Amino acid sequence: MATKKTSREEILQKAIALFKKRGYSNTSIANIAQQCGLIKGSLYHHFKSKDEIGLESLKYIHEYFDKNVYKIAYDDTLNSKDKIKLFVKKVDDYFLNSEGGCLLGNLALEVSNENEEFKKHIKKYFLAWEDALFNILKDKYTHEEARSLAREYVSLTQGAIMLMNLYEDNKDYLKVGQKIINLI
Q1: Where are the beta strands (DSSP E) in the chain?
Q2: How far is CA 128 from CA 11, 16, 62, 120, 168, in A?
Q3: What is the pTM of this model?
Q4: Keywords assigned by UniProt (predicted)?
């Protein structure tokens, strides 16, 4: 296979797609290299190991959500209703157009008991999601209620993503977003 130039970001995007579809354990460095059109050794110019690719993939997705979703909850130019509607829309845009479900949810189930570094980053991602929702809900609910509702929505969304992929039907997934919108 001829070598080609590819960026670290391109490698992460291809690896993320493979991890979501095949699972972390069932994806090898060779699979990632092949998907990128590279020889296996070329990946080592960008990453030391598959675990580094996995960790950087988690960080990449978290950064995407920080910049495109979570920040909505802290936008003082929007009222709570507009925040929650836009927040749900952005979450939907991502997961409805993302084959294989949620990378962090998938890896939480697959490897978080084996890899403490992965577990730490996965928890940060879900806590940031919960904190963002809490920030929207805290004006209407008590601290405890807002925190509980935020965690419930994250849990419901993750379960709905799994079922949406399993049944290849998004109806129940979409109901979760509507449920949280109706809370405001």
Answers
A1: none
A2: 25, 20, 9, 12, 28
A3: 0.92
A4: DNA-binding, Transcription, Transcription regulation
